[in-house]
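Risk register update: the risk of archive-format incompatibility is retired. Evidence:
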Amino acid sequence: MATAKFEVLSNSINAPIYLRLSIKRGLTPRAKTGLFINSKDWSKDTKLPKQSNAKNKNLKTDLLKLQAYILDKHNEAYKNNTTTDKQWLEHYIDVYFNRKDENNTKTNVTYWIEYIIKNSHLMNNSKGGYGLSKNRLKAYNSLLNRFTEFQGNKTINIKDLDNKTFNKFKKWLFEDKAYSPSTATKFLTDLQRVVKVASEFTPIAENFNSIKFKKVSTYDDDMNVITLTENEIIKIQKADLKKEALINARKWLILACYTGQRGDTLLNRIKEENFIKRGNDFTINIKQKKVNQSIKIPVLPQVREIYENGLPYKISTQKLNEHIKTICKIAKIDDLVMGKKVNKDTKRNEKKLRPKYEYITSHTGRRTFATIHYSKIPTPLLMKVTGHKKESTFLEYINQSQENHVDIILDYYRTLELKERKEPVLNIVDKASNQN
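Archived output:
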C-alpha cells in the first residue's frame, strides 16, 4: 500500500515543500510540489503546516487534496501496470496544479517565460532577425521573477491570462510594487508576448486579443531631463584633474556632448578609423548598434581638438559613469536638481532633489548635445546625428513641447513688422533671466 507524505528539507523562510511517495522498499520517488513555507511554520510531527494562521490552514488543505489526488493516480497506475517513478510524480503534481495537461503540454505561465529565455537564440527580434539581445533576455528574467511573486502559491495558466487577470497583474505592479508607468507597462507588454508565443502550442483566453494597454513613453517618467549647459561644459573642461583616469573620462564626456551618441556607440564606435576626411573637415562614420542605423557625425571643434590631441582609451560604461560624477563634483556642477537615482537599500528609483553631479552619466552627454543645439540647428538634421526617427520622440527626449513652433512663427512676423517700420530688430530677452 503506497503512502504519500510531505517534507521540508530547508531551514529558510521560503522553504520548498516536497512530496515523497513511498511505494515499496527502495522505491520512494520525491518531487517538489511548487509550494513554499517558512520552515518555522512546518510541523515535523504531522508533516504538515502548523495551524497558526489562515494562510497555513489553507496550505494544509491544498496539500491534503494533492495527497489524495496523487494516491488515486497511483492506484490507477498500479492497476494499469504503469511505473510510478520521480518523473511520473512530477508530471501529476504539475497536472494537479494545472501547470500542464494530461498529454504533457505545458500550460503554466512561468513555464512559457522560461521557454522564451531558454530558446532566446531562436526568438524573432525587432530587427527582423533571430536572437534576443542581452537587455531583452534580462527583461524576461525580471518578468519571470515578478510573475512568480505575483502568483504566489497558486499556478496561473496561459489560458487564465484574460483581461481580468492582466488588470489584476497591472494593479499589483502599480500599487503593491509601486512601479513607474513605463516599467509596469513593459512587464505587461512582455507578458502579452509570452502568450503569443505559447498560443502556437496551447489554448489562450478568448478575449486575449482585445487586451490593450496605453503606450507609455519612458520619458513620461523622466520629465526632469538632466543636461549640461555650455557654461557647465566649460567648467568641466577647466576643472583641475590630477588623475589620468579622470582626464581620460572627461574626454569621453566632452565627446558625448558634441557627438550625441549613447554610451555603447560612444565607447565602441568613436575611434580613429571612423574619422573620415571631408575637405578641410572630418566626419565620424558609424553604425549605431541599438537602431542598426548608419550615420555620419560632423566633427565639431571640441571633438576635433580631442581627436588631434589623442582620443581617450576605452573603459567600461560603469566605470565611465563613476568617473563622470567625480569630475562634475570637482567642477562644482552641484546645483540642486530633481532627478531619479537607485536607492541601494531598496533597489528602487527614488526621485528627489540632489546635487546635479549625482545624476550626470555618459547618456547626459547625448541629451546635452540634442538640447544645446535645439533651435539653433534644424531638428531633422539633429535627428540624423542622434538617430531618432520621429520628431515627437526627439522632443520628448529633450523635454520640449511640440508647441515651440508658435513662438518661432510669431517671432518671424514680429521681425517682419519691425522691418516694415524700419525699426531696429531687438533681441528678445527672457524676463526671468533679466530679473537675475
